[in-house]
Design goal:
This protein is 11% helix and 52% strand. By secondary structure, the chain is mostly beta strands.
């Protein structure tokens, strides 16, 4: 898996993740840099689900429980009204860092 970083872009945090999209769970990696957030799928056939989120697009960061009991859900709500839901380990540390960038 390769992510093309922009000039002066540094990876701050990365972790395995699932993206909940269109009644489908897409395995991949959530990558936070000093300039944006990426979701990169593990498989090329799911490349349509690759995401790039700029800090000025983020409205709010919310937590949720997957399967109603596991505290590992991270919801990135965009200003355009779209919600991007991810399952990720150590979601609290992700939420803290994400709240600092937008």
């Amino acid at each position: 898996m390769v992510v093309d970083l922009k000039a002066n872009e540094l990876v701050l945090k990365a972790g395995d993740s699932n993206f909940f999209a269109d009644d489908k769970n897409v395995d991949g990696k959530l990558i936070l840099t000093n300039q944006r957030v990426y979701f990169k799928t593990n498989e090329d056939q799911n490349a349509d689900y690759n995401l790039e989120i700029l800090p000025n697009q983020i409205e709010e960061i919310l937590y949720f429980n997957t399967m109603k009991i596991f505290p590992n859900g991270l919801n990135i709500r965009l200003k355009e009204g779209k919600e991007l839901k991810f399952k990720i380990g150590k979601r609290n540390s992700w939420g803290k860092v994400l709240n600092k960038i937008y």
